[in-house]
Amino acid sequence: NGDQLGAWATLEPALQQGGFHAFLLHGVTGSGKTEIYLRAIEEVMRQGKEALVMVPEISLTPQTIQRFRGRCGEVAVLHSHLGNAERGGHWRRVAAGQAQVIVGARSAVFAPAKKLGLIVIDEEHENTFKQETTPRYHGRDVAVMRARLENIPIILGSATPSLESWHNAQRGQYTLLTLPQRVLDRPLPQVGLIDLRHQPPRKGRPSALSDGLEHAMRTALKDGGQVMLLLNRRGFSTHVHCPSCGHVESCRFCDLALTYHKERDIMLCHYCGYEQEPQRNCPLCGQSAVRYQGLGTEKLQVEIEERFPGYVVRRMDSDTMRKPGSHGRVLSAFRRGLIHILLGTQMIAKGLDFPNVTLVGVVNADLGLHVPDFRSAERTFQLLSQVAGRTGRGPAGGRVLVQTFTPEHPCIALAATHDYAGFVAAEMTHRRQHNYPPYQRLARIIIRSRDQQAASAFADQLADAFQRTLQMMAAQGPAEVRVLGPAEAPVFRLKGHYRFHFQLQSPSPGTLHQLLRAVLPAQRAPAGVEFTLDVDPFNML
């Protein structure tokens, strides 16, 4: 269409001339970003070169491979759910130049392609591109640097670009391409907000579904449509507590409540993997009336199957998608209409294209909003916008219903009107006021030890070293680094270790790195204490 032709007119000369160019493709959900990727890859292949396509979720890989295999020759796949032999086979094919397109998650950025001509990053805003364990890296940022080093173009695509990428486009480091309309002029779905604070109480067992959402589901299914439900929390009950003394069953190694998984009949910590048998009596007061409360995808599936007998319900989360090929099998069955209701965590929220989905329901929009992380509003807006985009892609249209306790929150209210520009304007003002990215660079240092006193003492030692070095740097000129901490991490005890953290902010990456290089190599942590550095952190907990 016209919008795609306009974007292609800017992109095509860069692909033909070669050289490093970074493009941010901002297109609303269903606007045809994939067709732009395919045309770009075909142009690169015509030149005898290869393309690397990075996707944030393994669940997107089957759909991506299916689209590219039809038009792009040999496709190699690289992600962590492949067996070692299979992954090794794909790796060797890439190294031998036998694959024209490489598709994979973040680690695919290191694929040994010899004649790379283009890198595409789909859903570039996703935090799954960030590796949270050593070696810490952000797949998107590494990809941009690889494109620069290989002197080739890179396309970063998203309906809700990260604020860092949007900022780079606004200051001219990336070229902005826009697709403001859906293909075939289909409208974006109407989004309705259901205020859970004013829902009338139901008789009997509490329900995850409001009357409005349940009625809309019945209507959509009766008319032959399919339904997707998002609940970004797995398990059956998110916590178990005693109503008599108030005790909440927590992990032995983390300051976190255990989640009850009914299928395995186990209490599980989602951070460290600790498991224990479910408690029938309170371990503190001995009362037998312990309550299993909170809502996860497992409990939601049980309720949906009870309320909608005769319809096929499937769940997609990391509990059900463990076996190789499970993503592809479920999504293929859903595409063929063999599944009526698909519910799951954020893995169903992005990139998937199902024309017969006429209703998307968000069971609780507030789950990720009230956490001590400056990106929580951005993540919530992106998740709601992305899951809303799964509907209305066919001739039957579609609608979205969002259940929330805070419908007036800007990120929820603006997501309901598909107002990305309004959200960016408000969030950028907030970021500038508090010196957060993209206006300043951020580094986080975490000190951890099984001995709380030892960790605290080394954190104080590190704080003194930072202050002394900052004073020395200030004598040579203004040292624009703000050091916050040490403080207890929001999750203080994790995997048996007590954790303190620092946050370092600076408008100058060079000054920030200068301070880190001056302080950290000279610090020797005592036995049993370790510290880690995370530059541009995505997890602040």
Can you describe this structure in just a few lines?
With 541 residues, the chain is of the alpha/beta class.
Q: How would you describe this structure to a colleague?
A:
The chain is of the alpha/beta class. The protein contains 14 helices and 22 strands. The strands form 5 sheets. The protein has a 7-stranded parallel beta sheet with strand order 3-4-2-5-6-1-7, with helices on both faces. A 6-stranded parallel beta sheet has the order 8-18-17-9-16-15, sandwiched between helices. Helix 1 runs parallel beside helix 2 (33-46). The longest helix is centred in the C-terminal third of the chain and has 25 residues, at 452-476. The protein is globular. The model has no long low-confidence stretch (mean pLDDT 91).
